[in-house]
């Protein structure tokens, strides 16, 4: 097809996890180098990280990069809306991928919903975690925005329900084109090409679909990160991007009294910062890897 949203892209490999389901992943970089494990946000897929990964490869040290298509996303679509999308199950998926690849430890990086998985992974499996980075998510639950931002849980649930589409190519090009300069647009379109599927010429819907999306939302709302923040025993960097988050969250003692946790603010960044500013994301990853290698984060 001629649409830049349907271009061919590197297709993931897969492993079979407990229960017989297949989880797909991509692996790039240099095996034997420090490993980073990338966990995308809700409705995205592993290629979402490609702009940051490409910047890392071009400007920073060699890394072994593993990016998951988390269950229900990307190629890992063999899950109905009745599947187990709990944060614990997702963390176990990530562990089983590392086990299958023979990877002992990783810097675990999550964006949005994937940040919740990264936090849970680092608490459940601290011996497999060198450090973790939560990018605009994970450190709070959407229900923390009740009632200050959303009066009721039903209001929140509706706010988290995505538009059903279909979206025209112009719609998608307009949004993703607003994130970057025209010269960089092709990299972003490649990164999100598997996020959508074309249902008729020039008309797209999300690959995950509404039912699976909302099943993931329900499981996310069941996750309570505060005990995990209190229990964290590995270095943790929390990145805040968007305005409008409940400021009460950031006054919790879990943030103020834990020497393992560092909170940083990226002013002027939007939620899709891995696409908006991949160089910034890549530079943070490189810094954390370097500090971990020097044992300065401990």
What report would you give on this structure?
This protein has helices at 50-59, 87-100, 113-124, 153-159, 169-177, 185-191, 210-222, 226-231, 253-256, 273-276, 278-293, and strands at 13-16, 22-29, 35-39, 64-69, 106-111, 129-135, 167-168, 196-200, 203-206, 236-240, 261-265. It is α/β, with parallel strands linked by helices. α1 (50-59) crosses α11 and α2 (87-100) crosses α3. The longest helix is centred in the last third of the chain and has 16 residues, at 278-293.
Compact summary:
By secondary structure, the chain is an alpha/beta fold. Helices cover 34% and strands 19% of the residues. Strand 1 and strand 2 (22-29) form a beta hairpin.
Structural category: alpha/beta
Percent range for β-strand residues: 15-25%
The overall pLDDT, averaged over residues, is: 90
Shape: globular
Give the spatial strand order of the biggest sheet: 1-2-4-3-5-6-10-11
The tally of structural domains comes to 1
The helix count comes to: 11
Task: Flag low-confidence runs.
Answer: none
Radius of gyration: 18 Å
* Termini separation: 50 Å
CATH superfamily placement? Alpha/Beta hydrolase fold, catalytic domain
CATH hierarchy class name? Alpha Beta
CATH overall fold name: Rossmann fold
Summarize the biggest pleated sheet.
8 strands, mixed
Work out the number of β strands. 11
CATH architecture heading: 3-Layer(aba) Sandwich
| Helix proportion | 25-40%
Q: Could you spell the SSE succession in H and E letters?
A: EEEHEHEHEHEHHEEHHEHEHH
List the topology elements.
Layout: E1 13-16, E2 22-29, E3 35-39, H1 50-59, E4 64-69, H2 87-100, E5 106-111, H3 113-124, E6 129-135, H4 153-159, E7 167-168, H5 169-177, H6 185-191, E8 196-200, E9 203-206, H7 210-222, H8 226-231, E10 236-240, H9 253-256, E11 261-265, H10 273-276, H11 278-293
Parallel strand pairs: 3-4, 3-5, 5-6, 6-10, 10-11
Antiparallel strand pairs: 1-2, 2-4, 7-9, 8-9
Helix pairs in contact: 1-11, 2-3
